[in-house]
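New to this. Explain the following:
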Amino acid sequence: MDTGTAGPAGPAREQTEPVWTGLPRGLLSLRRLLLVVWLVPLAAAVGILLGLFVGPAWAAFALLPLAFVAWGWPVLGRNWRSWRYAERADDLLISRGVLWREETVVPYGRMQLVEVTSGPVERRFGLASVQLHTAAAATDACIPGLLPEEAERLRDRLTELGESRSAGL
């Protein structure tokens, strides 16, 4: 028997599933390249130094940084796949994490500053990051590795929505 009242999940409180957007594959390539650039020369240096000063048997410890490369390669892929964001009517959702899932909700009216940054390595890979600063430092958020066009579009949209939502404060 329907009494006409809607429960929390009924028509009075319509909730649509957010449309999630993942990060570009260039971010994964960048992070994997940095993993190799740091750990392979470290493995070579450890192997050479230990082989020269302690003995050839100790040079086997050079395999440890290479083991971290083998372990880190798929871990970086899983982490990259976990990053996503969704624009809703009143807020921006940012979700990340594999073992510890973290979902940040940033209300548009709380945004004070939206920055787009791109360091030299990011620019080489055609990427930029969007940094969100809010009234409460605990809700500051960052979306790394976006295409520059998407980062600028997101900055402009979030700034516009932030200004319109905070006008009543």
Remarks:
- The first strand starts at residue 21 and ends at 22.
- The two ends are 44 Å apart (CA to CA).
- The chain has a mean pLDDT of 88.
- The helical segments are 25-53, 63-82, 120-124, 148-166.
